[in-house]
Amino acid sequence: MKIAVVGTGLVGHGWAIAFARAGHEVALFDAKPGQSEAALRRIDTILPELVSFGLIESDSDLRARIAAYGSLETAVDGSGYVQESGPERVSVKREIFAELDRIAAPETILATSSSGIPISTIAEPLGGRARCLVAHPANPPYLLPIVEIVPAPWTSEKAIAAADDLLSGVGQVTVRLKKEIDGFVLNRLQGALLHEAFRLVEDGIATAEDVDRTVCHGLGLRWSFMGPFETIDLNAPGGIADYVDRLGPMYLRFAQERGAARPWGPELVARIEADRRESLPASALADRAAWRDRRLMALSVHKKAPDAAAADVMKERKR
Ligand SMILES: NC(=O)c1ccc[n+]([C@@H]2O[C@H](COP(=O)([O-])OP(=O)(O)OC[C@H]3O[C@@H](n4cnc5c(N)ncnc54)[C@H](O)[C@@H]3O)[C@@H](O)[C@H]2O)c1
Fold this sequence. Notes:
Layout: E1 2-6, H1 10-21, E2 25-29, H2 35-52, H3 59-64, E3 66-68, H4 72-76, E4 79-84, H5 90-103, E5 109-112, H6 119-123, E6 132-137, E7 146-151, H7 157-169, E8 173-176, H8 186-202, H9 208-223, H10 228-234, H11 240-258, H12 266-279, H13 285-304, H14 306-318
Parallel strand pairs: 1-2, 1-4, 2-3, 4-5, 5-6, 7-8
Antiparallel strand pairs: 6-7
Helix pairs in contact: 1-2, 10-11
């Protein structure tokens, strides 16, 4: 299928790799002249790394399926699915969707990568609103498979199922939200953790680095293969009810102590920013993001055969 990716920044170029990896033709369009070509250059640096990790076989085959287009019309023409990945601003998304609804064939699914804006806010007045939905990825989508599918009340079951089939078919892992909520599930969970993290630093309980260390060397190690419910199910001999019996009152106390949400004030942000810049200068952010992506590539390789890896270790130990 031909797929149009509209907006080819951080997330758009990642979507292009995910779709092309699964054999789809990808048409890139960006309103900023030269941006899609820049995205292609970025893709050219990523593909050899994916080959070296064994995550794709041929970078040239994949690359041949992605092309930059000079207009939205030509990118969308013949596309069965559009992944809008423009800026996270309601006015811009409304404009792009109005245009997409006008030019795309009636059966084309129109999805947005929006991190938190519900599709009902974007597509409400459109004649083709039944084919519009949110398909929210994590960054970068070709390494983090989760996609939240969030329909509006009027999105058709047919469009939801078609988007789910397409995204599952390219190797993403879909979660269908039962109804719209600002921020969806992923950023609601991330937001809860971030609020607690900012508070721990603001109250002088721990440094930003120690909060990061706690996740990196503790919670996060489990989270790469199990979620919070499975985690607590395994952390009490009698499972989740036993865990809640033992520790529920403690967590309730934390929630009650927390009280009203605290905004992340400029002084606190400046303090955490200064701590971070001491660990990582601003000039090294892009290199560190590339390092993160290589770590994710290694983790993807590991996650593709988790049981085999565990079995190998067990075999070693028995020797
Ligand atoms: N960055 C993330 O971690 C992340 C994760 C998940 C979802 N998202 C969502 O994905 C979307 C894109 O985010 P990003 O981080 O890639 O932003 P970005 O700023 O890197 O890219 C946005 C691109 O859209 C282009 N653009 C602007 N107006 C346009 C228009 N009218 N038509 C076509 N292109 C246009 C810009 O030139 C830019 O290249 C946002 O909705 C964001 O919330 C981001």
